[in-house]
Write a structure and sequence with these properties.
By secondary structure, the protein is of the alpha/beta class. It has two domains: 103 residues, NAD(P)-binding Rossmann-like Domain (Rossmann fold); 168 residues, NAD(P)-binding Rossmann-like Domain (Rossmann fold, 3-Layer(aba) Sandwich), CATH 3.40.50.720. It has eleven helices and eleven strands. Strands 7-6-8-9-10-11 form a six-stranded parallel β-sheet. Helix 10 links the parallel strand 10 and strand 11. Helix 1 runs parallel beside helix 11 and helix 4 crosses helix 6. Bound molecules: glyoxylic acid (2 copies). The site of one glyoxylic acid has 7 residues, from loops.
Length: 294
């Protein structure tokens, strides 16, 4: 019996590739594949699925976010979509905390300062920041990552406020010292944080985005930061990723990371193994995978 065929859209960790190769034949084109492993950089729209052909049964997205996939087109064509929740929850929450602490304690600003070899010595009023302790952290998105971030900020003595789908954001934004985004990107969350909502935040507040870039109007964010309407931002994702708005680059009160939310080796391997499980469920066992999205 020949193994079902799987196409992988990009490089994956060797452990994951071996696990795929143990059960499937890896093929260079999705047109020959019953299953495809996709990265969040691959747009799976109706044209992609049409081009792939009717033999394609499953798109295993190597991410928890599935905004790169037209779920309605997949449903219409009977293609199953799976994702990789849970295993990246802590890693992503850690990046949110990392951005918060780096920003509040001016660590990346200080790092740039040291590397410029500017003269300095310890001094009581030099580069003062803020403790996370005691801050009100508005967490927008009450899914797994949002709840984990709430748990971690609570451990630092900050006060998390979890805002779910139906929350009155306008009322909550003005109370927060830190706003951290943990919603999936959908039509309903695109530019959720726009110029109007940025203006509702305190001038002393900071924005953290580890979700998806287009949740924030990046041009409006740059304007708010430059005018002093907002004190800072910590970003792991960008509206036109991997492009970053040039007006953010020169700002000291911005911490910029290159989409590292789930970027630890064990996390990435665990995500890959969830893709393998989903491929096996659909292509070998003829059942719905545990992490089915549609
Ligand atoms: C990463 O951004 C993911 O959605 O897994
Ligand atoms: C969403 O899937 C989350 O983990 O928050």
């Amino acid at each position: 019996m020949t193994s079902p065929r799987v196409h992988i859209s990009d490089r994956v960790p060797a452990e994951v590739e071996e696990a795929i190769a143990a059960s499937f034949e890896i093929v260079p084109s999705v047109r020959d594949a019953g299953g495809v492993v996709t990265m969040l950089t691959v747009t799976v729209d109706d044209a992609y699925l049409e081009d792939a052909g009717p033999q394609l049964k499953i798109v295993a997205n190597y991410a928890v976010g599935v905004n790169n996939i037209d779920l309605e087109a997949a449903r219409r064509r009977g293609v199953i979509v799976s994702n990789t929740p849970d295993v990246l929850t802590r890693a992503t929450a850690e990046i949110a905390l990392t951005l918060m602490l780096s920003l509040l304690r001016r660590v990346t600003e200080g790092d740039r300062f040291v590397r410029r070899q500017e003269p300095w010595q310890f001094s009581l009023e030099f580069m003062l920041g803020e403790r996370l302790e005691g801050k009100t952290v508005l967490i927008i998105g009450s899914g797994r990552i949002g709840r984990e971030t709430a748990r971690l900020v609570e451990a630092f003595g900050a006060v998390p406020v979890l805002a779910g789908r139906d929350a009155d954001l306008d009322a909550l934004l003005g109370e927060a010292d830190i706003v951290s985004l943990h919603v999936p990107l959908t039509a309903g969350t695109s530019h959720l944080i726009d110029g109007r909502r940025l203006a509702l935040m305190k001038p002393s507040a900071v924005l953290i985005n580890t979700a998806r870039g287009p949740v924030v109007d990046e041009a409006a964010l740059a304007t708010a930061l430059r005018s002093g309407a907002l004190a800072g931002a910590g970003l792991d994702v960008y509206e036109h990723e991997p492009h970053v708005n040039m007006r953010l680059l020169g700002l000291e009160n911005v911490v910029l990371a290159p989409h590292l939310g789930s970027a630890t080796r064990d996390t990435r391997i665990a995500m890959g193994m969830l893709c393998v499980d989903a491929l096996k469920a659909v292509l070998l066992e003829g059942r719905t995978p545990t992490n089915v999205v549609v």
